[in-house]
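With this grant's support, we have settled on a layout for protein records. An illustrative entry appears below exactly as we store it:
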Amino acid sequence: MIVDTTHRRTTPMTLTAETSRPSVTAAAGRVRRRRLLPRVAPYLQAAPLTVMLLLFLLVPILTIVVVSFWDYDSVRFYPDFVLTNYTELLTSPVTWKTYLNTLKYAALTWAITLGIGFTVAYFLAFHVRSTTWQMVLFLVCTIPFWTSNIIRMISWIPFLGRNGLLNSGLISAGIIDQPLEFLLFSDFSVVLAFVHLYALFMVVPIFNSMMRIDRALIEAARDGGASAAQTLWNVILPLTKPGIAIGSIFVVTLVMGDFITVRLMSGGQSASIGLMIANEISLLQYPAAAANAVVLLAVVLIMVVAMLRIVDIRKEL
């Protein structure tokens, strides 16, 4: 009788190989997942912010760009592809004067807020030694922001008016004989309101940059015989440039797009790009307003890129 021993010898080895294959495959899959997770994790973390930016930033901008090429009449606007809105906008002398006026407001506000912001930040960072007092004084600077911008603007009217507190006080003191007309409903009042509204946007980033300066550098400059002015110009100011750039971006972009301040504080006697866009919207000229908004966005982006080319803002981040 012949006994087949081949089956008995091969069966255990075959079963072992077959049962080990799934475990090897599962182990390899786990290794691949472990290797893939560190690569995918940053994208998963950035996905919610990316979706939010796409929905609430990119989509509205693309919508404005599309509408800027539509046509309109006195009662409605309809989808089309025309360049009339941009042609009328860029060839109009009124548009150029309005842009220059807006740039004038932005430049004056930037220069004044830079002086105020740098001075206040320097005082808080280098002359107030106590951290508690720094926070208290910084909180005092933020108190005006607890109210509405419109309320803060309106509060200047009884102070700067022809019969306001300032003119009445100057006349009573005998400094002037008649009220100063330029204080209210003028470019002066517009710039004053802008400075009041946006000065803190310059103080905060400059103060943040100054607090990061190593105090040993200042001590080394003093030990080297540098005066206070030389230390300020050669040590503090270069190290504060990122904060100045961030504050400048905030102030310039806010002023360029503001319209309610110009409308209230100028009494309708001055114009800005934001006010022009608001007037076009009120007249249902949405394609023209969209074209104006696209041009304004391009101008602001050029200004921001120019600032970023001058100062490496990544040092602040």
